[in-house]
């Protein structure tokens, strides 16, 4: 059989489609390449401008300065520990909740789903949340980074929709063979749910990794603050120092900044370096989850 030749309208559509996708790809990729070039460039030279894709004066001093800072390394490890713990526990607990809600024999299932949905419509605000965390004695502890992030109703609904699409005959045949609900969940439901579980894991992991708000308002100990919070503090302090230095500033701040610039490491270059450091793990993990993500994110869009 010969290959069907594309008509002129099809070729025009394909060309425009690829052009738009290429523009979006370049738009999303260029900021990362720009930060990467600045992170490997001499900070004092970068202040002159004119760097777009590749470093002009290559140096590793920015990364050496970043990894020699114990607070930066500690915040990095806190983010890794939090992301791993929250992702594993959240996916497991959400799957258990979604499996229970997907069982048609659950008494009062409609009312339970409505209750969970109703609680997502309102928020108590920052002050009631702070009071609740203080009464739970998790303020300024590692658990304030973990416990509030374990539940998300949207993730539970996505999983429930996926579980509803699993043929009921599989669970019924397992129960006839003597399997209980827990055995059905572990041996049948979870192995068949890898796409949606990978999707939820990606949602939860990225959300935890990028969350700076929790560490900013509920943790005062710098040794417990995650990387995103530490980066936000660096940006805020650098902006404040630039304002004070433009108005004269203090001699100590100006002296410290001058010493960093003499070594080729400026506050701006250090911020770019830290952005690359905290972005790289997510970029490395995403390709391994992409094949599951594409399938899981479309769950519920097709019906038999």
From TrEMBL:
Main subcellular location: membrane
Membrane-crossing residue ranges in chain numbering: 12-37, 76-99, 111-133, 139-163, 184-206, 269-289
This protein's UniProt keywords: Cell membrane, Membrane, Transmembrane, Transmembrane helix, Transport
Membrane topology term: Multi-pass membrane protein
Gene3D superfamilies (alphabetical): MetI-like
UniProt cross-references to CDD domains, sorted A to Z: TM_PBP2 (cd06261)
Subcellular location: Cell membrane
Lineage: superkingdom: Bacteria
Start and end residues of each ABC transmembrane type-1 domain: 76-283
One GO cellular component, as annotated: plasma membrane
Record-linked Pfam families: BPD_transp_1
Any one Gene Ontology BP term: transmembrane transport
Family: Belongs to the binding-protein-dependent transport system permease family.
PANTHER family referenced in this protein's UniProt entry, alphabetically: ABC TRANSPORTER PERMEASE PROTEIN MG189-RELATED-RELATED, POLYGALACTURONAN_RHAMNOGALACTURONAN TRANSPORT SYSTEM PERMEASE PROTEIN YTCP
Protein name, UniProt field: Carbohydrate ABC transporter permease
Phylogenetic classification of the source organism: Bacteria, Bacillati, Bacillota, Bacilli, Bacillales
